[in-house]
Amino acid sequence: MKLSLGTPSHLYWATIVIVSNLIWTMCRPCDSCSGQTSMFDPLQSSTYKSQTCSASSCMELPIHGCTINQLCGFIYSYEHKYFVEVILASETLLFDM
């Protein structure tokens, strides 16, 4: 699905995981995302906020850990064969109807 993300907003493709309350999109920097042209750049948004390990949103995750910078990180697996490494963050989004 397409949605507008960030401030100022830009249009991106995102995946909504209906078994969770999370929305995923690829973000810069991403060393293993070769060929991807439309990635969200958190440094260009005034409303992006990484969540720390002590944030309540991080504590609600069943399995989480801390990055070296004390950010909330976790690995999410799906279909028993894929996984993504994630830094939990909050951001402003608008759905494209």
From TrEMBL:
Transmembrane segments: none annotated. InterPro entries: PEPTIDASE_A1 (IPR033121), Peptidase_aspartic_dom_sf (IPR021109), Plant_Aspart_Prot_A1 (IPR051708), TAXi_N (IPR032861). Keywords: Hydrolase, Protease, Signal. The keyword Protease applies. One of its GO terms (biological process) is proteolysis. Belongs to the peptidase A1 family. PANTHER family: ASPARTIC PROTEINASE CDR1-LIKE (PTHR47967:SF128), OS07G0603500 PROTEIN-RELATED (PTHR47967). This is Peptidase A1 domain-containing protein.
